[in-house]
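Structure tokens please, single chain.
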Amino acid sequence: MKAVYQVQQTKEFAIEDQVLYNDNLRYHRKLKLKWVGPWTIIEVLYNRSYKIADHVGIQAQPINNDHLKLYHRREDLQVQIEKYIKNEKSFNLKK
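Here you go.
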């Protein structure tokens, strides 16, 4: 029987997007941070590779998108949570 796998979604980032960077995908330590950042995309290279920079300077080598994920600021999440709470209160049915 042939196994059915879902198609993996590709992540595409644009210039000035803020991302988190994982520099050690294979060797996770229990208490070490997996994702560091935020970093800013400064250049889009071929084959889904990017050059990133933090507030200090530029990362020397190109980074593949497997090592990156989109960064969400906490203020944005707080606004989404408040909207969700307002919608929940309006939809509550009293018994």
